[in-house]
Structure formats: structure tokens, C-alpha cells
UniProtKB/TrEMBL annotation, chain A:
Name of this protein: Uncharacterized protein
Species assigned in the record: Pseudonocardia thermophila
From TrEMBL, chain B:
InterPro entries membership: PEP-util_enz_mobile_dom, Phosphohistidine_dom_sf
Example GO molecular function: transferase activity, transferring phosphorus-containing groups
TM spans (from-to): none
Protein name: PEP-utilising enzyme, mobile domain
Species the sequence originates in: Pseudonocardia thermophila
Residue ranges of domain PEP-utilising enzyme mobile in the record: 42-127
Tree of life domain: Bacteria
């Protein structure tokens, strides 16, 4: 348990921790690996008490977070020292607040001062929200690009965002916020958590 | 009318009024144990914050109701609870106490008091108001 995580173990365990509950296939998809290899790594991580299996998925144990934190301190010291990253991250906080507000506006509309569920009957309203999301995602590009120069796994986020946005454009609106598909909200949330761990920061309330 | 034990932000209006025993979840292990116990649907889940991200598996496995002690309806957990249509009262405070959550300046005692008071109690959530979510005694 005390020995550190190698990079592949880190990538697999990090994906489990970001997704909170994930199958080997979903993890392989997110990190661009082979499902069989991911399954073997998960077994190893389970043997070390870092994940448990429940309902066909892997979940992180309480020990996962400290192990990831310790590994990230080693792996990402150069990222933390990169001033460009630092500057771009400052801007990310504002973008993130706007993203959360926009996501809530997708779920609920204001009718006479009262928030009611968006029934998605107003295509113009929905279109505006999707445009805004598109712009907010585009604002992440410089940060994602520089992170990918440090660790190529960050290039998975632009790829996943592109796939989700293309699906939304094709009418699959569940790809905006549904927690059960690789939606824009899921991808954003995972990126935010990943970013905080990479930088060794805590989530703010 | 039943006694109102706690009030907070109502994350979304719903006529669903789940009833169950409050279970305080402090860590991912608590969530895993609850899911594995097969008794997830008997409980209203109490967590510390809107940033308590380890709750997601419980929501996807069919949690019936959630109470948080901090966080805003626009937070990640708020967004998830609307997606899953799981009634959720956020930043709940006890009606019997003067203590309130203040961002970045809330003593531990505030959270401890709420957890101690609500954990194990049979409650019902009332999420019909467009602003205030209520935790009612149901025992």
C-alpha cells in the first residue's frame, strides 16, 4: 500500500476517481487504453485496497484520493511550476462559474421569477444555451493544449468534447447534461477535478 | 403539519416527497457500504457539501433524497440531482439552531450539530416550494 503508483496505475485510478464509478470499458475509453489491460490494472488496484467492485463497476475507496494526491505531487511538479498553466487556470475559475450557471439554465428556465424544468420545446432558447456551451468549451482550449504538452492524456478532453458537441448538433440533447452518457457536463466536471488534482488544489465551495 | 426539522435551498420543485431514515455519509467508503447493503432506497442521504462528489454513485443507483449542509443549487451535485430527479435540499440548517452556513467561515460545530441531530431520524422531504426545501419529521 505504501509503494507509489506507476503512471498507468495513476491513469486508471484517476479515471475511476473522476468518474466515481466506472467499468473497465469506460475507463479505457477515457484514457485511450485497452479494456483488457485496464481490467488487469483494476484487479491490481483492488488488491491494494484502492478500488472496490460494486454492480459491475469500480469505485474508489477512501485510500484512493491520498494515493493519487501523493502520485500527482511527483508526476505533476513541472505542470505546477509552469507559469502559463497558472495564468490560464486563474481564468478557468470564471469560465467554470459561467459553465455551471449555463448548465442550470439548460435544465431550468425562468418563468415569472420561478424556475421550472426546461421542457426543451423552445428550440431558440436551447440553441442559445448550446452556443454558449460551445464558446465556454472553446475557452478551455489554450489550457487543455498546454496541459497536453505535459501529459498527452489531457488531449482526451478535447476529443470527448468534440464527440459530445457533434452528438448534440445531431439532436442527441442528452449529451448536454445527462450523467449516464459522456455528456458535456460529465466531461467538464471530470476535467475540473482532474485539473485540481494535477495542480494539488482543493475544490472550492 | 409535521415538524420542520431543517430548511435549505430547494434544488428543483417536485411533488415527490421521499421518506426515509437519514444516513450521514462522510466518505466514499460510506457510500460504497450503503450501496452494497442494498438499503440505499431506505435512506435520505445527508452529506456535507455541494462539492461532495463521492455521492454520484448513490444518485445513479437510485438514491431517493439528499440533504446537504453547504453548496448551491448551481453546483455539480445540484445539476446531478436535477438530472436524476432526486429531491435535494441544499445548505440545510436546523430550525432549532441559530447556526448558519457561511462560505469559508463555518465552524466544524455547525456541521456536527446538523449531522448529530438528523442522522438516524425518520424524515420526509418537502420540495414543493420554489425556493425552500424542507426536512420534516416523519416518526
Amino acid at each position: 500500500m505504501t509503494e507509489g503508483l506507476d503512471k498507468t496505475d495513476y491513469d486508471v485510478l484517476n479515471a475511476v476517481a473522476l468518474k466515481k464509478m466506472a467499468s473497465a470499458d469506460a475507463i479505457a475509453d477515457a484514457i485511450g487504453g485497452d479494456p483488457q489491460q485496464v481490467a488487469e490494472r483494476l484487479q491490481g488496484l483492488a488488491g491494494r485496497g484502492l478500488v472496490v467492485e460494486a454492480g459491475g463497476s469500480a469505485l474508489p475507496t477512501d485510500e484512493a484520493e491520498p494515493a493519487l494526491r501523493a502520485a500527482a505531487d511527483q508526476l505533476y511538479a513541472p505542470v505546477r511550476a509552469d507559469r502559463t498553466v497558472g495564468e490560464l487556470v486563474e481564468r478557468f475559475e470564471t469560465t467554470n462559474s459561467q459553465f455551471l450557471t449555463t448548465m442550470s439554465a439548460w435544465q431550468q428556465v425562468d418563468v415569472g421569477g420561478r424556475k421550472v424544468a426546461n421542457d426543451h420545446s423552445d428550440a431558440e432558447y436551447d440553441g442559445k444555451i448550446i452556443d454558449r456551451l460551445d464558446k465556454l468549451i472553446a475557452r478551455l482550449t489554450p489550457l487543455l493544449d498546454v496541459l497536453a504538452t505535459h501529459d498527452p492524456r489531457f488531449s482526451a478532453y478535447p476529443r470527448r468534447f468534440r464527440t459530445a458537441l457533434a452528438g448534440v448538433d445531431a439532436g442527441r440533447t442528452e449529451l448536454v447534461s445527462s450523467p449516464t452518457v459522456d455528456s458535456i457536463h460529465n466531461i467538464w466536471f471530470e476535467f475540473h477535478e482532474d485539473l485540481l488534482r494535477t495542480l494539488g488544489r482543493e475544490r472550492e465551495e | 403539519m409535521a415538524e420542520v426539522l431543517a430548511e435549505g435551498y430547494n434544488v428543483f420543485d417536485t411533488s415527490k416527497s421521499p421518506s426515509g431514515t437519514v444516513k450521514y455519509l462522510a466518505s466514499p467508503a460510506d457510500v460504497i457500504a450503503l450501496i452494497q447493503s442494498g438499503k440505499l432506497k431506505e435512506h435520505i442521504l445527508l452529506v456535507r457539501g455541494g462539492t461532495t462528489t463521492f455521492l454520484a454513485p448513490a444518485l445513479s443507483m437510485g438514491a431517493i433524497g439528499v440533504i446537504t449542509m453547504s453548496g448551491a443549487p448551481e453546483s455539480h451535485l445540484g445539476i446531478l440531482s436535477r438530472e436524476f430527479q432526486t429531491p435535494c435540499v441544499m445548505t440545510a440548517h436546523l430550525t432549532s439552531s441559530e447556526s448558519r452556513y457561511v462560505v469559508g467561515n463555518t465552524p466544524e460545530a455547525h456541521f456536527e450539530e446538523i449531522a448529530k441531530t438528523l442522522d438516524g431520524r425518520k424524515v420526509r422531504l418537502d420540495c414543493t416550494d420554489h425556493e425552500i426545501g424542507r426536512v420534516l419529521a416523519d416518526d
